[in-house]
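U., I forgot to send this yesterday:
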Amino acid sequence: LKNRMQLSGEGGAARAHRTVFHAGVSVLKSEGFSGLYKGLSAGLARQILYTTTRVGVYTTLFEKFSGPDGKPPGFFTKAGCALTAGGIGSFVGTPAEISLIRMTADGGLPPEKRRNYKSVFNAVSRITKEEGILTLWRGCGPTVGRAMVVNIAQLVTYSSAKEQLLASGYFKDNVFCHFASSMISGLVTTIASMPVDICKTRIQNMKVVNGVPEYKGAVDVFLKTVRNEGLFSLWKGFTPYYARLGPHTVIMFLLLEQLNTSYVKVFVK
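Result:
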């Protein structure tokens, strides 16, 4: 739904979806319940490639910069590790990402313009054969940029929100405080990363006609979107995006806090 809303009204055309509810009903009416899960194989592949790479790189860098006595690195070092891990992970996951964007966008196109990929493997195979292997990394710049923005925004806003909530005197360092801090972090991260995300989505979904692409790059997407659709169009699909990123942020930080607490109890005390 997020991708459909971000592509709706592209180039100044009439918006096909006014709200996330309208987008959901439209998909159900025209494509059935299965239409909500188009691109599932690409979404799973993207999570496997991106998440495993990101976690693996972050863990490796975290251990490398830890002190000889096992003392964890400082905040800014951890932020640098997160930026690097997010960038590398998104680069590895870009082929699955572009497959996901195209598969989810297909149902919103006229029948003659649909790509009709059957799975992520079919999408990667056809993109390589029809457009060249480098097309699998089209939009890699904004994809990597988005991942870096998400990683650093999550880390900085979570720690800052947690500090402010604890300083208010109304919160204790417990699960409820962690939940509230992570929801704030998810909201700020959504606001900060959506302009980059919509540029990524449109670049990866664009077609090249007679050797001429619709967009020259992320800056061109940004300028055309603002000029033709208005500044706030950069946050199209905000509700479904936050509905996905919010719970993801909450689960991630709740688990992280519990793991940190267990580590202190077992190894420090």
